[in-house]
Amino acid sequence: MTAAAIAADGRPSSWFQRFLLPGFAFKAVVIGGGYATGRELAEFFLPSGPWGGLAGMLLAMLIWSVVCAITFAFAHVMRAYDYRSFFKHLLGPAWVVFEIAYVLFVILILSVFGAAAGAIGASTLGLPPIVGTLALAAAIALFATFGNSSVERLFKYVSFLLYGVYALFVVLAFGRFGDRISAALAIPAPTDGWALGGLTYASYNVVGAVVILPVIRHMTSRRDAVAAGLIAGPLAMLPALLFFLCMIAFYPGIAAETLPSDFLLQQLDIPLFHLLFQLMIFAALLESGTGAVHAINERIDGVWQARRGVELSHKARAGFAAVLLIGCIFVADRFGLVALIGSGYRALAYAILAVYVAPLFAIGLVRLLREARNPDEVSS
Fold this sequence. Notes:
This protein is mostly helical. The chain is built from 14 helices and no strands.
């Protein structure tokens, strides 16, 4: 027997909230500065050639689906809807080890998002990079201020914008240089490293499954959790697969571009669509950054309620977000997009594997299987 989860407006959670919202939220976290601009795709998949890159992306998608399914199911069974609660159940007293890794992850990705926003502002409007970075930080702080309902609406509507713009981009790209894409796919190219690229990319991004735990509260059963997790992988990877196909039209030279998206838009030479695509990337950076900051606010809120008996105020949420974002802006301004992605993400991938993915399979999955064999378990 399952009890209906309740949405923020007091009504039972909808089919969208139970099955699609987690995938949209996960996509929101992983798309970030490098995925949306194509920089991560160039870093981790293009070195393996067109077919090797596609194989690596499919491997990453499969990893995401499996890890999300186990994560969501474990969170549902343990009623753990923020990362602190989740890891206290998974790691016990060692949960703080994940928090250290997660704080480093947030600093890195917010720095990447800030650098990407600055690069977009400079390439599109000719603004100093710091202007785009500050605009993104202000927008993230605004949405993070108002908690779950604000963040979930952002995930929903930006997702519609993102999928629509990517679909239009693919149609335009195949119409303009589809012959180059076909030619690139036909050229023999080494596929060395495709599995390592897919594993590395999946590893540091899969932490998004923990970041978006606040939306898991809508689920009514463990079956919901598993289904939503399996759906999350394809929802998150589909835009990247389509974008990668467009990128390989200019393989291998495009791998050296700081903003592969901007390079492709220049080849299309449609100024209005160029602006629309850059707006979509900014929106993607906004939802990714908001998701990461919101996870920290929810973690703080859980402790705040336990100690003081009241929810974290909007003013406090805004303050915590501002402090975090301001620090990351200086990192972004100091190092730049390519350096941050190339040097920081690989090290982070190993840390996430050690403190999250390995314990999830070794401890979390075992506990879930044990719970499944218990006839007295009640899913709610």
